[in-house]
Write a structure and sequence with these properties.
single chain; alpha+beta; OB fold (Dihydrolipoamide Acetyltransferase, E2P); BirA Bifunctional Protein, domain 2; 2 domains; eight-stranded mixed beta sheet; five-stranded mixed beta barrel; 19 strands; binds aspartic acid
C-alpha cells in the first residue's frame, strides 16, 4: 500500500491507509494500546483495539522513537472527543497492522518537551534526535522558507547566485582566519573565507552587476551567545548603485519576509528609521539600538538603519584601523580628506548597518573602486607598499581593469532567524551548531589527526603549555 502522510489523513476518513514515521508517545492500557505517531507532516493518535491480536502483541513491544510502518483505518472521532484547533484532532487511527522498521534505544532526552530546558551539550551530542522535536523542526523549516523567499525575490529582481571559493587566502581583514595546510605547497596555507567580500567585488569587475549568495563565513573568534565559528550570510553586491538603492532593496526584502512568512509580527515603523552613528551612541549608547516601544511584545520588530560611521578608529597601540570594512568608500564629501590623508578621525564612511531589536543583522557599504583611493586606506593603516601589493594587489589590479562603481551588504542570516523565530540564541536555528566554546560534541570535533596526515601535510604540532 502507498504511504499516506499523516498531515493528509483527514481527507482519508473511512479508508484503510499505511503511514510511516516515529512513535511519539505510547500508552499501554492493558487491553488497548494508544500510540501517537509522527512524521514530517504532523501527528496522529492511534489506538490498537483488543480484536487486532497480532497488532496488540507488536504494540506491547514498541517503545517511543521506534520507526514503524502502520496500517490502519482512519476513523472520525465522536463529537465529544474532537480536539478543536489541533491537526488531526477530529480523527483517530484504528491500528490493524504494525511493522517495525527500526528500533530505538531509550532516547537521551524527551523530545516531546521544550528541549530548550535540556542540557545543551547533551542536545548537541544527539543533535539528530534533538532536531526531531516540534520546535526544532519548525526552526529548520522556517530557515528553508526564508532562504527560499530570498532566492525567489532576488532572482525576480535580476540577481544571480554565484558560489565563491571556500579555500582562499589569508589577508589582514578583520578577524582571525581559519587556515588549511596546502599539502602540495609545504609551509603554505589556504584560509577559509571570513566573508566573500573580495570575490563579490571582483564579480562586479566581472560584469555580473547583481550578485547574491547564501554564503558560509568562518571567523576564528572567541565564541559568544550570538556567534559561531561558522555562520551564514545573505551576501549581496550591486553595480552602479548609491547607498539609497542598496538600502531600499534590502528594506523591501526584509518587509517581504516578515509580511509573507511572519504575518503575526508587526514592524514598528516603515520606512525603517535612520540614525547616524553619533545620534545612536548619544541617545542609546549603542550602534545597534533597540527601538522597540514595547519590549514585552515578542511579535514587535523594530528595524533601523545606522549610517555615517567613522571610517577609522585608533587601535590600542595608537595606529589607525578601519571600523567596518577597508573596501568602503568614504562619504563623497570626505574622499578628498582620504586622498590627502588628513582629518583621518573625522572621515565618515558610506557604511550602513541594519539593526533589529538591539541586534546588528546586517551591514554594508558603497565601495572604494578607485585603486589610488583604496591604497590610501591601507597606507593610513601603516601597511608598507610591499604588504599592500602582497595582500591586496589583485584588488588594485582589478580596479584598474574596468570596475564599475558598486556597493552591497551582508546579513547575518542566523541572527535574523533567531529573532524571527523568537529564539534566545543562534544555535537554535543552526541545524548542526557548535557549543559556545566552538566544539561539535556529536562529531567530536575539533579532533587530533593521525601522524601520517600530519607528515603528509608537512606540519608539526607544538602544544602550548596552558
Ligand atoms: N563583507 C561584509 C561583512 O561580512 C559585509 C559587506 O560589507 O558587504 O561584514
Amino acid at each position: 500500500m502507498n504511504r499516506t502522510y499523516i498531515g493528509d489523513l483527514s481527507s482519508h476518513a473511512g479508508e484503510t491507509v499505511c503511514i510511516k514515521g516515529w512513535v511519539a508517545v505510547r500508552r499501554d492500557q492493558g487491553k488497548m494500546v494508544f500510540m501517537d505517531l509522527r512524521d514530517k507532516s504532523g501527528l496522529i493518535q492511534g489506538v490498537v483495539l483488543p480484536n487486532h491480536m497480532e497488532a496488540i502483541e507488536a504494540a506491547k513491544e514498541i517503545r517511543t522513537e521506534w520507526v514503524v510502518a502502520i496500517t490502519g483505518i482512519v476513523n472520525k472521532r465522536p463529537e465529544k472527543n474532537i480536539k478543536a484547533g489541533v491537526v488531526n484532532g477530529d480523527i483517530e487511527l484504528e491500528i490493524t497492522g504494525i511493522e517495525v522498521l527500526n528500533k530505538s534505544e531509550t532516547p537521551p532526552f524527551d523530545i516531546g518537551s521544550d528541549t530548550r530546558e535540556i542540557n545543551e551539550e547533551i542536545r548537541l551530542t544527539h543533535r539528530y534526535v534533538d532536531l526531531r522535536s516540534d520546535r526544532m523542526q519548525k526552526n529548520l523549516r522556517a530557515r528553508h522558507k526564508v532562504i527560499k523567499l530570498i532566492r525567489d525575490e532576488l532572482d525576480a529582481d535580476g540577481f544571480i547566485e554565484v558560489e565563491t571559493p571556500i579555500l582562499t587566502k589569508s589577508t589582514p581583514e578583520g578577524s582571525r582566519d581559519y587556515v588549511v595546510p596546502a599539502r602540495l605547497y609545504p609551509g603554505q596555507f589556504y584560509a577559509l573565507p571570513q566573508s566573500p567580500q573580495q570575490y563579490k567585488q571582483l564579480l562586479m569587475t566581472a560584469g555580473v552587476e547583481k550578485y547574491f549568495q547564501i554564503a558560509r563565513c568562518m571567523r576564528d573568534e572567541d565564541t559568544r551567545g550570538d556567534r559561531q565559528p561558522e555562520f551564514t550570510q545573505l551576501d549581496l553586491e550591486m553595480s552602479f548603485v548609491e547607498q539609497e538603492d542598496v538600502i531600499a532593496l534590502n528594506e523591501k526584502l526584509l518587509i517581504k519576509i516578515v509580511e509573507t512568512l511572519y504575518p503575526e509580527k508587526k514592524i514598528q515603523q516603515i520606512p525603517f528609521p535612520r540614525l547616524s552613528y553619533t545620534e545612536a551612541m548619544e541617545k542609546y549608547n549603542s550602534d545597534k539600538p533597540d527601538l522597540r516601544e514595547n519590549k514585552e511584545d515578542s511579535n514587535l520588530l523594530a528595524f533601523c538603519w545606522v549610517v555615517e560611521f567613522p571610517f577609522f578608529e585608533k587601535t590600542d597601540t595608537g595606529a589607525w584601523t578601519f571600523t567596518h570594512n577597508p573596501f568602503s568608500r568614504p562619504k563623497p564629501e570626505h574622499v578628498e580628506w582620504l586622498m590627502n590623508k588628513e582629518n583621518i578621525g573625522d572621515i565618515l564612511t558610506t557604511q550602513y548597518d541594519v539593526a533589529l531589536n538591539g541586534f546588528e543583522i546586517g551591514g554594508g557599504s558603497i565601495r572604494n573602486h578607485d585603486p589610488e583611493a583604496l591604497k590610501k586606506v591601507f597606507e593610513i593603516m601603516g601597511h608598507t607598499p610591499e604588504a599592500i601589493e602582497r595582500n591586496f594587489g589583485h584588488m588594485l589590479k582589478a580596479f584598474g581593469l574596468g570596475t564599475p562603481p558598486h556597493g552591497g551588504i551582508a546579513w547575518g542570516l542566523d541572527r535574523l532567524l533567531m529573532l524571527l523565530q523568537n529564539e534566545p540564541n543562534i544555535r537554535e536555528v543552526i541545524p548542526f551548531a557548535k557549543t559556545g566554546e566552538g566544539r561539535d560534541p556529536m562529531m567530536q570535533s575539533p579532533a587530533e589527526i593521525s601522524v601520517e596526515q600530519m607528515l603528509e601535510l608537512n606540519i608539526t604540532s607544538i602544544k602550548k603549555k596552558m
